[in-house]
């Protein structure tokens, strides 16, 4: 029988720029919930943003993979010992968005665009000295154990390291889904990718898998451009200093595209000043995709939309976790999707500060916390 309560080392933040390694108490799962022993958790810029800006106490982390440790009542299809990837886009199946097939923007469970009231496991699942502690994006993966809704995990049996499986649940899915689910990139097309960090690399390899003929990577770092070519980019362009409207970059892209511009362009930098940049790179009737989740107010020159251009801002690559995660793992097993190669460096909970520092200074494509 599994213990009712686990002592769990975790990264706890006050949402005002501070975080620390603490020991929490993680209880047994309630009805419709499972407890997961986390094996690996990816580090993401969103984690850092939450530490700086959420202004509340919570367990950090929203990318993870592990093993089911306990199963609550009325849970079907999951058993103790199952390997799972955690998913923060938890569908309820009943709301308008879910009924329309848009489970990634569930009106009841989404911590981003829904009311978030139903996606969280029971409040007292994680406590500190008897006080309930919230878990980031309903998950809190920077913890040895976590309790989540059963719909927040996807079971898998693929032969894959937990470190590689852990990053599927956000960065990989966001990049891949933006290409395949949102933009529907066509074979033979030309694609530009602005920013070649973790998400940008997944946009690049998704474009390659989709059959794009020409993939133009754009970054400020030559080393990242070389890495982008290893993931499928055919061309690399160093971003031009002070070219914030991307007029000069647009001219370079047109030189590579018979004077028209790219069919698709993806912004993966999260830099507000570059929010309109993909529009400058696409041809008439092309598609610009803002992948990085810029939320600040941006002024657009409406001439950038001429003519018939489309600008979209998909959430989480329009993810349907129960179908998309197995697809990604199948692509990995077939050798088409690079996941092991994305994990540049691994860390422990004790040196998570090194991981954040490497991430913020662009030294890694993806950092992952490994649990004993």
UniProtKB/TrEMBL annotation:
Record key words, sorted: Metal-binding, NAD, Oxidoreductase, Zinc
This protein's record includes keyword Protein transport: no
Gene Ontology molecular function, alphabetical: S-(hydroxymethyl)glutathione dehydrogenase [NAD(P)+] activity; zinc ion binding
Stated family: Belongs to the zinc-containing alcohol dehydrogenase family.
Domain Enoyl reductase (ER) residue range list: 15-369
Lineage: Bacteria, Pseudomonadati, Pseudomonadota, Gammaproteobacteria, Alteromonadales
Listed name of the protein: S-(Hydroxymethyl)glutathione dehydrogenase
PANTHER family: ALCOHOL DEHYDROGENASE, ALCOHOL DEHYDROGENASE CLASS-3
Organism whose genome encodes this protein: Paraglaciecola mesophila KMM 241
GO cellular component, one term: cytosol
Keyword Zinc: yes
Pfam families, per database record: ADH_N, ADH_zinc_N
SMART domains on file: PKS_ER
Gene3D superfamilies from the UniProt entry: Medium-chain alcohol dehydrogenases, catalytic domain, NAD(P)-binding Rossmann-like Domain
UniProt record, GO biological process: formaldehyde catabolic process
Cofactors that this protein relies on: Zn(2+)
